[in-house]
Amino acid sequence: xxxxxxxxxxxxxxxxxxxxxxxxxxxxxxxxxxxxxxxxxxxxxxxxxxxxxxxxxxxxxxxxxxxxxxxxxxxxxxxxxxxxxxxxxxxxxxxxxxxxxxxxxxxxxxxxxxxxxxxxxxxxxxxxxxxxxxxxxxxxxxxxxxxxxxxxxxxxxxxxxxxxxxxxxxxxxxxxxxxxxxxxxxxxxxxxxxxxxxxxxxxxxxxxxxxxxxxxxxxxxxxxxxxxxxxxxxxxxxxxxxxxxxxxxxxxxxxxxxxxxxxxxxxxxxxxxxxxxxxxxxxxxxxxxxxxxxxxxxxxxxxxxxxxxxxxxxxxxxxxxxxxxxxxxxxxxxxxxxxxxxxxxxxxxxxxxxxxxxxxxxxxxxxxxxxxxxxxxxxxxxxxxxxxxxxxxxxxxxxxxxxxxxxxxx
Length: 410
Prior knowledge:
Radius of gyration: 22 Å
Largest sheet: 9 strands, mixed
CATH architecture of the largest domain: 3-Layer(aba) Sandwich
CATH superfamily of the largest domain: Glycogen Phosphorylase B
Number of helices: 17
Strand order of the largest sheet: 1-11-10-9-8-2-3-5-4
CATH class of the largest domain: Alpha Beta
Oligomer: single chain
CATH topology of the largest domain: Rossmann fold
Distance between the termini: 33 Å
Strand content: 15-25%
Shape: elongated
Number of domains: 2
């Protein structure tokens, strides 16, 4: 495990690379991975690198863009079952070998681990192009939430093999790096995430929006933001809110997002405000207009929504896990409880709901913390990491390169 460091001299003297970035999700798809990649691609281009973006075609009318610094290569994909709005990229080894032989990238960065990503690693290894990867999503943890828990071990083995075929795997937290290292992952490096503190700001608080939610002038707005899906553990958030209502009858709960649990929550919890998908300034207003942010998920690799809530000046409550473990000091700039302690989560939610002054103070300190988590620094680290791998050559051990070449020719 390595936490990345770089110098100003390295950045100033950095060569300008042609990076092929392979992903199976991209805006306008709404998820943390797509948002993070958009930021990182913009960061690479802003630092003078050029990016070939390889991704599945999202709609039949989707057209590959070619703009300053960015050229898209669209591939075939299939919609993921039970995960609306996302696609699984189909294998594209032959096409990538042809494209990258014709116009060779300096480095290939693979952000997602589907069939498209696997064949991208294979093609890069065959051509001896340095290849790196991201670990964004605990797909093996998702299996139990979708009725295929027996797949957890095979999926975990696949992910480990996938990443160990690359020169470096970038993860967002030190805790995740340590966890993956114990599972046999090699060459793990930490690159954190940033937050846009101009977009996400307390200044976007809207009393009109609070009235739409049915929140009284001095009432309490409790918010959850993210996919409305089993892996987000929303049942705990709903139980915490029920306990809050016993102390604060004026409280309202707002769920921002969409997903397969939306209809059942609407039927079983008619008092919950289902705000649906929100974007940009509208999403920022939803955060800033709340008073307490609940994030009960235990399947995150990071959890960008935690930083977004903090930047909005909203007191966060989460498990001591992922982004929360990195940036929240309990009762200093938010609240965290031990992973899996559902009773503790509910108790702390009730405590924060009842303590207006404490909650306001924690939200103010959360904002100050977020202001120090800058995307520019994150993008500096990412660009410097790719340059280092490029300078080292392929960086892939002989055995991994041999396996990749054999699979590419099979």
